[in-house]
Amino acid sequence: MRVVTSTSALVLLACTILSAAQDLDAKARDIVERMSVDQLLGQMTQITIDFVLATQDGGKVVNVGKVHELANQGIGSYLNTPFVSALGDNYGWNVHEWRHAIGQLQDVHIRTTGTPIIYGLDSLHGANYIKGAVLFPHQINVGATFDPELARRMGHYAGRDTKAAGISWIFGPTLEPVRHKGWPRIMETFGEDPTVVADMGKAAIDGIQSQGVAACFKHFIGYSASNSGKDRDPVSLSNHELLNLFMPPFKAAIDAGVMSGMDSFVSLDGIPMAANRKNSIQFLRDDLKFDGVLVSDWEEIYMLEFYHHYAANREDAIYKAMTDSSLDMSMVPYDTSFIGHMKDLYYAGKIPLDRIKTSVTRLVKMKLKLNLFDVPMPGADVVNQVGDWSSRAAAWDIAKESLVLVKNVDKVLPLDKSKKFFFTGPSIDDIGLMCGGWTLTWQGQQGSSMFPNHWRTIKGAMTDVVNDQSRTEFYQGVNIDGTWWDINWAKQKAQAADYTVIALGERPYAEFKGNTDPYELPSGLTEYVKALATTGTKIILVLVEGRPRLLSGIADVAAAVLYAGLPCEMGGEAISEMLFGLTNPSGRMAMTYPKSTDQVNLATPYYGRVGDECVVGGVTTHCPVEWHFGHGLSYTSFSYSDA
């Protein structure tokens, strides 16, 4: 079939799109022109939901009186989960509880100001703060699939399920390429290759925004490149690195029409991003032509004072941010002090009205794009789809296609289910450890009881495949922190088994809470593996971790090693099927896995080719590598012969 498209039709379509954009601009400007200074400043303010919550009957409810207090100040946005940590056995709101709360917020704000609020949430691996929604593998797993369509599907369901809760703004995807392998936010990234990150990020944004939800690239820019590997520590990048390694994913997102972006906690080349004119204004707005909303990260503007010591006080911090960045909204988030300081600065003539109106116009335009003025609580049509089989299937596909088989001596895998098995290790029977941080609560959860709806642990899934209790033994043997139980008992069970499947890795954490962990896995974990290996059993090692913790030689004593990342709820089933050969491993390492601390800072960036380059003291050198970027085995054999 031959398709002919007339030039006039394309021109008409382009004109229609341009006209719609111009209409939206005009509507936004009209709304902004009718706002008072107080209302404008309120729109630029984002407050955590905790400010308006009360504890009641073992749960959390909205205090409408507190909402009125904020509505009277014209607050433009709320954010966050109501359960930063669990409240007894309560880990969050289901979709109906979310809709009730969002409805209360919107009702008060619209009746008070005529302008809807926009709610932002970290739906980072599915709608991870909405009870009953399917929890997807983390972004690092999606990156290991090298399949943008899977990133798009995750974005689609994250957007759909978040919208079902009445929420129109997702703080994701994360678009920093990985550099330092100790950085505690690696699980939130797509890996270390800028092209892969760009392709995956663009697809995820398409999936999110196809559901009428705003995506938000983060964290602009260089956030993952801290010199120390610690979250929020300073970053130094050459112009070459900035433009060739860190810029491409953000450019791809902007070209794809991402509606919003988030700034970064870090100082880049000595200047905090919240007041970094070169990168926030000249680079982001002038060069990359980003015209969407730019929101600060949590308390980022005030960090200019208390963290970076770049400002004398809060008011000075706000002045510097408004003068030397293009931030549109302050994630304050604990109080409304931002409004008072902004008023003082405005009436003192230090911040011009045009600067304020420019930001509020962007904010109002995004609300118009999302149709919040007409439908302030979207998603009623998809409420009953949350947790459905289509989203489970998408999470399952990502989980199984993200598993990376990195070692398989003498084709020990796939496993023979007629043999004897010993299942052990802290992650073998724990869904929470397979999900990591940003799961139900900010820092995640350990255990399985809070995941009743979807699938099984590794032990549970593998035991069902063997289907013979006389040939399976289970003993955890060691805690996630490396504390041993009875090592002799564990060794007896290992010695009696043909295969010992050990699943271990990291505790759950998020952001800077992961800064305190050493680069190596706890010695108790690695010594446990080595002790069991002395029994003669074949060690099948499953690594469940959000970043590549150093293994201290345990990969060398294993017959097979599977890098599972954080596959979350579907991980147990996916790992079991892969180990038994029901699925063929297809994942590839999305990052270089370092072998030792010889390189001091574990910075092993992928420069477009496989190698062992790393950065030591600012100098590129060569360092030991456990597994290279792109490495991954399968069960398929190939043979070559002359034609």
Automatic annotation (TrEMBL):
Reactions catalysed: Hydrolysis of terminal, non-reducing beta-D-glucosyl residues with release of beta-D-glucose
Biological processes per GO annotation: glucan catabolic process
EC number: 3.2.1.21
Keyword annotations from UniProtKB, A to Z: Glycosidase, Hydrolase, Signal
Domain Glycoside hydrolase family 3 N-terminal positions: 38-365
InterPro entries per UniProt: Cellulose_Degrad_GH3, GH, Glyco_hydro_3_C, Glyco_hydro_3_C_sf, Glyco_hydro_3_N, Glyco_hydro_3_N_sf
Protein name, as recorded: beta-glucosidase
Organism of this sequence: Aphanomyces astaci (Crayfish plague agent)
